[in-house]
Design goal:
Elements (H helix, E strand, L loop, with lengths): L1 E5 L18 E4 L11 H8 L9 E6 L1 H13 L3 E5 L10 H9 L10 H12 L4 H14 L1 H12 L10 E6 L13 E3 L6 H4 L1 H13 L2 E3 L2 E2 L4
Parallel strand pairs: 1-2, 1-3, 3-4, 4-5, 5-6
Antiparallel strand pairs: 7-8
Helix pairs in contact: 1-2
């Protein structure tokens, strides 16, 4: 079975560099250029040609990658979708995200302001690890302010998941950006938003287990953690 991994906003496949996924048929999906005004469904449509939907496959995404994975799943019909540190729709947003969307905070993201606002992002998604923070900043700079701005704008306009098939959720209980206020299948103790980097072995083990769990019903897997 092919496993397609989608990174988060402002990151690339280096986000998964510490995860031991040996033995899995992993495919990394890197972000296309986001046009101004694009939607997450538009981004999924751009990624669609990279997925061989004729083969059994799973889509797994982190943060924005998880949101796009749900849009992509409606196009490719995977065996299941694995959601890591992400939402299934605006109904799960904390009030701070609703406020940010209303204020249009994405408009302040420019090349000249990225470094200035980075301490806030470090607090939201980092874990006080300088090496991890450096990796995140390098990826954000490589992706560029335009993609960050347009991607965040697409998230703020998202209406929620169109995917009604099986889902597995892996989430950290210390995630400041996406607080765990919903049922999950795998809870990562002290896991923050970037736990795929600094708790890579634990998340990888959960991902492996999620790939083999039996499906017990439409849109539902057995067990809750």
């Amino acid at each position: 079975m092919d496993v397609y991994l989608l990174p988060g906003l402002g990151t690339d496949q280096r986000l998964f560099s510490r995860m031991d996924l040996s033995g899995l048929n992993v495919r990394y999906l890197n972000w296309p250029a986001y046009e101004r005004g694009c939607t997450l469904a538009d981004i999924a449509a751009q990624l669609r040609p990279q997925v061989d939907a004729d083969r059994p496959h799973v889509l797994a995404g982190v943060s924005m990658g998880g949101m796009v994975a749900q849009e992509l799943a409606a196009l490719t019909q995977p065996e299941r979708v694995l959601l890591i540190s992400t939402w299934t729709g605006p109904h799960e947003w904390p009030w701070t995200v609703h406020l940010g969307a209303r204020l249009g905070v994405q408009r302040v993201i420019r090349e000249r302001t990225m470094r200035g606002v980075w301490p806030l992002k470090q607090w939201l998604v980092g874990q006080g690890n300088k090496e991890v923070d450096r990796l995140l900043f390098e990826m954000a700079c490589d992706e560029g302010a335009v993609k960050l701005r347009n991607g965040l704008d697409a998230i703020f306009r998202w209406q929620g998941s169109p995917w009604k098939g099986p889902v597995v959720r892996i989430h950290g209980d210390a995630d400041r950006l996406v607080p765990m206020r919903f049922a999950v299948d795998h809870r990562v103790a002290d896991g923050g938003h970037t736990m795929v980097v600094y708790k890579a072995s634990e998340v990888a083990a959960m991902l492996r287990e999620a790939l083999t769990r039996p499906i017990t019903g439409e849109g539902e897997l057995s067990g809750q953690g």
